Amino acid sequence: MQLGLTAGMLAKATIRNTGLFLLVVVMSACFAGASVRAEGFDRQFRAWENDLDKIEARVKSGRTGSLEEGELRSTLQKIADSAAGERDVATKEARQVRTLLESLGPKPAEGAEPEPGAIRKQRQSLSDELAMREGQAKQAGLVLAKAEQLSSSIGRLSRDRLKDALFERTVSPLNYKAWVVAVPEAVKVFQTSFISAPAKWWSSVTSSPEHWDTVVRTFLLALLAGIAGWPLGAFLRKRYGRSSETVGPSYARRLQAGIAEGGGRALGPVLFVLLLGSMDLEAAGTMDSVVQAAARNLVLLFLGYALVNAAFTPRQPEWRLLGFGEEATRRLVIRLKLALVVFLVIDGIHRATSWATPSAELESVTALVFTLFLVPILAPLLGRRLWEASESPDGKLHEGRRKAMYPRLRAILLLVLVLLPFSALVGYPIFAIFLTKVVVFMPLLVGGLVLLRSVGRESLAAALNVDSPMGRKVRDTLALGNEDSTRLQFWLHVLVDFALLVVAGIALLPVLGLGADETAASVAKLLRGVQIGSYTFSLIDILLGIFLFSFVVLVTRLVQKALERHILPNLTRDKGVRAALKTAVGYLGVVIAALVGISTLGLDLTNLALIAGALSVGIGFGLQNVINNFVSGLILLAERPIKPGDWVVIGGHEGKVKKVNVRSTEVETFQRASVIIPNADLISTPVINWTHKNMLGRVEVAVGVAYGTDPRLVEQVLVDCANAHPNVLKGQDPYVLFTNFGESSLDFELRAFLVDVEKRVLTGSELRFAIHDALKEKGIEIPFPQRVIHMAAPPA
């Protein structure tokens, strides 16, 4: 036996040593890989530092221009994205190593028995790797913070330059010398941009077969896309556009038709221009600026025309989205389209010649010409009659409402229009151009966002409308009642409005002077997130967490619906069991959804458990009643002493159980009042449940008859009345008790068992009616107490 024990001990020791050896080998391989990765990270970190030092030197020099700042911001964006990725990887690996280190248990205290050498070696290796990972995360975070600071500094320089340019006074166009300098310079720039550059580019295209093939292929592809977009747009207009057969279209139908008509007509030209504008010209600078400006402004022209036609529909007033009269609509459409064309032509010329550095005289003259062309077109749009006498789509005038809404807005816009040529005349051309772009692009942007908001709201209303097939299907799938549907629609409206506000903010930044590069950097910083401690919370993770939480909750609702319809009815006919199982699945789904959402955010559930454990004492005292009711609710759901539909008497309250929640139970009294009872009271106090096991019950009817009546006859009459009632149980005969010799009657009590105890009160009343009629027919008197009063004789 001793040899057997020794052999067993040797085998166990061998297995243990072999396992430790394999673990050491695996850890050594991991550490070797980690060492290689650490060297790569060090090289990357030094490269980051070198690039950041160069960029910082350029920023501090103060000699950067807008083009160079764009390149620097692009480089910083790449560094920030790379550093953020490395930081996230290092933070994740550090958490994994910390978990391995914690699995070894706490380090022995001083004076305690030392741990085995292999464990000590592993602890030291894991500690070193943890320190390395945390150091890498901190270094990457440092690079990210420095890149964001430099990007903010570049943005500050751009804003300061814009501010200085806006309020820098230059040559006034009232000075004839400005025209002497500006006109020849404008002719030269125009000739270079629109004659020399295209001719030079065309010469290079015709002399290079490769370049010619690229141009022809791109042109044919763009032409094919434009031609393909025409029948697709025609289909959209025919399928979803305006129809002469529709009488009195609703707002949703008009909105759908406006989008289909405008989008369908603009689809082909927009596709053609976009593909043609994406052509690789292989000629940077002048020609590239011309093509990009032309493509951009042509797309804006097509979309602007589509938006105006969708909103006003000059020839079909019944399909109009905005409430303007016939004459007002005609004027508005002409003025808006003319203003759009003039602005985009002048703005396109300005963008196409952005390669040149204009003189102060040319900027001043250009701003004056720009504003003088645009202001006479925009000013009539603010006419008082145009806004005050406009009609709603139903033909009613709203002069009072218009007068209340628009005077201040008109005054502000008129002031801005007056400032446009005035600021150019006094020598502030950059401010005039900036204000012009704001005046033109702001209404277009607001109009587009309002249209998108209307589309979103109408789509949600159609998706949840109980009168539409799709709405009924959505409600049925998600098990939504009227109140749930209204609540869901409200929160979806809030979500759509918030998303549109974010889009509006991002779209307004370039209009207000912030470049596209700076806007992209701000959005990228928002998406990268904010680091709090060892966790990084990014907008993408938050949105993904919300989406996954909502998705799991949606799947839970579908599972509950399937259980309620197809599975639970086949398992049990007890409505209480089915309600409890359905509720349990709902709570389980919410818990799983919360865990999935938290995990998506990157939070460590172990740390949350530690925090919950630390707060458990405070929760136990501060939320004692809440926890008590919560646990009581779980007991009620598990034991089911009461369930929805039961007739209960709790304290002084009697009624039907409507819903058993986790914290409280809702009881509806027979007076249709809802009583919210804490679950702890249901556990700790007696509860009368008339329908706990079955619907059987008993009714008692007390009857008194006059002295001298045959008791057996009374018994027979009462039993016959009970047997004749349909709610009295046939399998168990009713019986009569002779309860007492009263002061003025013989007292009896009829006891009958009922098929449906919920009709107990009604059955008792009907039995009393029947007993009264039967006793009267038998000549049996139902007495009432009689009193004889003896009056004292008056004194003599």
Question: Would you kindly provide a written description of the structure presented here, covering whatever features stand out?
Answer:
There is one protein chain. By secondary structure, this protein is α+β, with helices and mostly antiparallel strands. Helices cover 71% and strands 7% of the residues. The protein contains 23 helices and ten strands. A five-stranded antiparallel β-sheet has the order 6-5-4-3-7. Strands 8-10-9 form a three-stranded antiparallel β-sheet, covered by helices on one side. A hairpin with a 2-residue loop joins strand 1 (530-532) and strand 2 (535-537). Helix 1 (2-61) packs parallel to helix 3 (117-166) and helix 4 packs across helix 9 (360-378). The N and C termini lie far apart (126 Å). Residues 1-27 and 389-404 have low confidence and may be disordered.
How are the SSEs placed, and which strands pair?
Elements: H1 2-61, H2 66-103, H3 117-166, H4 176-207, H5 209-240, H6 251-277, H7 286-312, H8 326-352, H9 360-378, H10 384-388, H11 399-405, H12 407-425, H13 429-463, H14 469-478, H15 482-511, H16 516-528, E1 530-532, E2 535-537, H17 539-571, H18 575-600, H19 605-622, H20 624-639, E3 647-650, E4 653-660, E5 664-669, E6 674-678, H21 679-684, E7 687-689, E8 697-705, H22 711-724, E9 735-741, E10 746-754, H23 760-778
Antiparallel strand pairs: 1-2, 3-4, 3-7, 4-5, 5-6, 8-10, 9-10
Helix pairs in contact: 1-3, 2-3, 2-16, 4-5, 4-9, 5-6, 6-7, 7-8, 8-9, 9-12, 9-13, 12-13, 13-15, 17-18, 22-23
